[in-house]
Design brief:
By secondary structure, the chain is mostly helical. The protein is built from six helices and no strands.
Amino acid sequence: HRVDSLRAILQTSLHDTVRVHVLLKLGSTLQRVDATSAEQFIRGAIALAEKSRFKHGLALGYRKLGNLMRIQARNFEGVQSNQAALRVYQELNDAEGIASVLSNTG
């Protein structure tokens, strides 16, 4: 089971950037079956990305949180998360990230 495998990986010693990606993958995997857990994993990834100054992970985390909020019809929070992702992608001059956020926001 994919979720169990990802949870097992989290129990190992990982570099922060890898841990952020695993947390985000867990959040994406769970977003349609357990939104509460998905949000916890994504918010955990965002916090770790901020702490470790992993800007790409931070932007991706905000983007995934925005997607989750949209799925849950929490539109205002989704817009806020996408705006946060957009700001980070702009700091990074990441044209692909910017385009992805803009395509998700309408």
